[in-house]
Specification:
Layout lengths: L16 H5 L6 H23 L11 H23 L11 H8 L6 H21 L8 E4 L2 E4 H25 L1
Antiparallel strand pairs: 1-2
Helix pairs in contact: 2-5, 2-6, 3-4, 3-5, 3-6
Protein name: DinB-like domain-containing protein
């Protein structure tokens, strides 16, 4: 991926640096679409019943992790759209734990969660293709921190990579 999509320090809150480091300099649409297959392959091995299990008490189930990834994709995508279009309003944060509790992901069939994730990813990649290059540099404020459009587009797959690693390691042992 070209330098246009490489966010610089100061274009995102420090706590996103770990996510960005997982994908920086890579072809973001390719990663985003590739993660669909990685997620599907993981859950094919896990199955419906085991996807409702957490690796430890107080941790999310695998279905809840998948739902969280999709919710976070949507929140970050909305922010990117708003900032790309010149929105100046401050965007709120979101309580990921409250979202997971209220979503009741364990009651949703796994096949529907996977379909939702896949469709949201295709919509995200389609949106990315329509954003002008100069708009990738736009900066807005979300949850009290400045963030650029291109940083958000790096955070999304980096966040998913983080959770894929957890699914493949901690949940495999649980």
């Amino acid at each position: 991926m070209n330098d246009l999509m490489r966010p610089k320090e100061g274009e995102y809150a420090p706590f996103y640096a770990g996510y960005i480091s997982l994908v920086i300099g890579q072809d973001l649409p390719k990663i985003l679409l590739g993660q669909i297959n990685a997620i599907k392959e993981h859950f094919e091995k896990v199955g419906e019943e085991n996807s409702k299990l957490a690796y430890a008490s107080g941790k999310w189930s695998q279905k809840e992790v998948l739902g969280h990834i999709t919710d976070t994709d949507r929140v970050m995508t909305f922010r990117a759209l708003c900032f790309a279009r010149g929105e100046k309003a401050l965007m709120p944060g979101f309580d990921q734990d409250e979202y997971v509790v209220r979503a009741k992901f364990n009651a949703v069939p796994l096949v529907e969660l996977l379909d939702d994730f896949e469709k949201s990813r295709h919509a995200l990649v389609a949106l990315m293709k329509t954003i002008p290059n100069d708009a990738m540099l736009n900066i807005g404020n979300a949850n009290g921190f400045d963030v650029s459009v291109r940083a958000l587009f790096n955070i999304i797959p980096g966040h998913a990579e983080h959770h894929l690693h957890i699914l493949k390691t901690l949940y495999a042992r649980g």
